[in-house]
Amino acid sequence: MRTGAEVVAGVGLADRPRKSRWPARMDLAQSLTGLVLGLFMWGHMFFVSSILVSKDAMWTITKMFEGYFFFGTAYPGMVSVVVAGVTVLFVLHALLALRKFPANYRQYRAFAAHRRLLHHGDTTLWWVQFMTGFALFFLASPHLFQMLMHPGLIGPYESSDRVWSGSWWPLYLVLLFAVELHGGIGLYRLAVKWGWFEGTDPNVSRKRLSMLKWSLTVFFLVLGLATLGAYMKIGYEHRDRVGERYVPAWVKPAPEQGGAK
Predict the structure, then answer these.
(1) Which of 13, 57, 174, 213 makes an SS bond possible with 50, Cβ 3.0 to 4.6 Å?
(2) Is the pLDDT of residue 136 over 90?
(3) Residue 43: Cβ-neighbour burial (10 angstroms; 0-12, 13-18, 19+)
(4) Count of H helices and E strands in the chain?
């Protein structure tokens, strides 16, 4: 006959409920959606900054995403499909991130005291990421809705009119800082969390990643401010012709030949 201790031990091993794997799965899903959105953010910035090259360059990028160079005509609905996919990832990522937000004021006070006590750089970065993520709930949603419902209003004149005459530039200015800080910190924390680019000395690797993160953040902020300034300038100059579509000179049909026959 088994002793009481053996019985208890046997019950503990056989009948102990297995821990759910869903928290780990949701954490992985949050990481993957954040990675995709962060990389998309950087790619998007390069695309919209093509206006710094020329109006023709921006028009060409826009029409490429509308399938103009593949089908011979533009289909703005293709942009809506991409925006819809990004919106789904954005909402999913936000819902997954809510698990880690302070649920009430008591939890917030506990975290604030913990942050002040530790004076830890990465803990402060998480707080900045939390605040910017909360702001993005309200800042990114109008932009995504606009692009989803009006994909044909993207172009050198169309976008500039929206920024200046449509008075969207204050939202885009705040959105620029929120998304670059949130995305940059998020990608840095992913690299640290999953051990990407980790060398023989984790402390040295973390310092290098931090320097790279801030360098990229400054780069994209400067690029974004220059891009927003360019759209504002074009929009101001085009304010008396709001609604006019931009078409490059090389796309316009040649004028008909007049004169006597």
Answers:
(1) 57
(2) yes
(3) exposed
(4) 10, 0
